[in-house]
């Protein structure tokens, strides 16, 4: 699934749907300014302030999420000053029963 997230977008803390086994996210935004934020954030729990690790959405990075009840994550607010959308490709590996 190709995603295009606009300035002002953010994704609240969540774990993925129970039928998602693994998600691999590739970042595609050439020229992304890290000051625009829109970072993938790994959380310790469901609180926005509990960031353990942050990944800037640059093409040299990707993220793999193995779904479990403790795999909390979110996307930080994309700055309204961003001059391009945050592009990413999500490869989702669904549970066999889905």
Characterize the structure shown.
- Helices cover 0% and strands 43% of the residues.
- It is mostly beta strands and 98 residues long.
- The two termini are 17 Å apart.
Descriptors for this entry?
98 residues; mainly beta; 8 strands; four-stranded antiparallel β-sheet; single chain
Quick recap:
The protein is an all-beta fold and 98 residues long. The protein has strands at 2-5, 11-14, 20-27, 40-43, 51-55, 62-66, 73-75, 86-94. It contains no helices and eight strands.
- Tell me, what's the shape? globular
Task: Point out poorly predicted stretches.
Answer: none
Find the structural class using helix and strand composition: mainly beta
User: What is the strand tally?
Assistant: 8
So how many helices?
A: 0
Q: What is the straight-line distance between the termini?
A: 17 Å
Helix content: under 10%
H/E order of the elements? Answer: EEEEEEEE
Integer-rounded radius of gyration: 13 Å
């Amino acid at each position: 699934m190709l995603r295009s997230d606009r300035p002002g977008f953010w994704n609240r803390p969540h774990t993925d749907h129970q039928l998602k086994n693994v998600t691999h996210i590739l970042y595609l935004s050439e020229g992304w300014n890290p000051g625009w934020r829109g970072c993938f954030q790994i959380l310790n729990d469901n609180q926005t302030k509990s960031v353990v690790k942050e990944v800037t959405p640059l093409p040299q990075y990707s993220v793999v999420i193995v779904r479990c009840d403790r795999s909390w994550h979110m996307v930080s607010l994309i700055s309204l000053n961003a001059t391009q959308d945050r592009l990413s490709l999500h490869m989702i590996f669904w549970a066999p029963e889905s």
